Task: structure prediction
Amino acid sequence: MSEEKQKYQLTKAQFTQEPLLPIFSEVLNRLDYVLYGEGNLMPQYLISRYNNSAIHKAIIISKKEQILGDGMVSLNNPMATVNFINDSENVKDVFEKCALDLVLFGGFSLNVIWSRDRKSIAEIYHIDFSRIRSGKINPETDKIEKYYYSADWSNIKKFPVTEYDAFSQEDGRPSQIYYYKQYSPSQSYYPHPDYSGGLASIEIDVNIKEFHANNLKNGMMPSLWINMNNGLPGPEEQRLITRALESQFSSVNNAGRPIISFNESKELSPEITQIQTSANDGYYQAIYDDIIRSILSAHRISSGELFGISTANKLGSKDEITTHIEYVRKTVIMPYQKQLLGVFDKLVSLKFQVPTSFEIKPLSIYLEGDITETPTVVDKPETPTQV
Result:
């Protein structure tokens, strides 16, 4: 029996079961700040899914653009949208960055710098929400009094953590952090983005793309079994043969090309067995429509066409499209605008020392008749009529 075992060799493949998704956790330990998710890198995970899922990114960007509308106006302080609120940006520039953060993370943060007399705000800057971590709640005041910044939380030795006071009109250092987050049950420090229920579908969307990409890159692997029938080589010789085959045939350009073998005799030639491609890729494609629907539902989108996502056999009437547009505007876009405007009204009023309230002009697509009516175009000045 031992002689039979020596005629062949099997290698064991390791399969590790890992959690599908990171957990939205708030971890309190001996550090001054609260860890944001697994490895303190939940925002970085959200950014990676945003960058790698085409559908998810299209919705995020479209939401941001609809939040911005056709511009900001202030009736009680018209110059507030023109004057700079820091050394290079006006309120619209900062507002746009905060809108993207709010949709992507469920919150946004601002660096507020007070004047020397503490009677007004000197400058307001957007600060990347993914680079901020919350301090712990002070049990005496029941408030978060500190926030912490690092350019890269995965390498705080190279990018040291900087402490900031939380925004306060009463006291604290001149440079402070205004931290806004959407309310999430059981979360005291960090928000859940409103699409968090669809993260599993977004993850699958990314994995399906990676599955097909890997199939192309490793075109040889699922289709051929190369059985060397001329003895069991030593470990080093096995590695050399494997590397030679992979370097010659495993690539997108070499997919489907034949393997040519030169042998001393037919009896010593490699035995090559064709393996039928598994149906897994077809299975993933079959569930793709359900994944799209899940992502749209997570974003509270009633029709993908409104966000540039085509759906088979879904070309609605004009009345149906108008209904979808109005639904999204009132239930998704306007609540975002309300959250942002509440913060900017307060801070910009302190900045200019004038009561300031902003309004956002709706996108022209929301205006009835905008698509069907053709405006009169005047291509040259009219000559005044002589009296």
In short: The longest strand covers residues 107-114. The two ends are 119 Å apart (CA to CA).
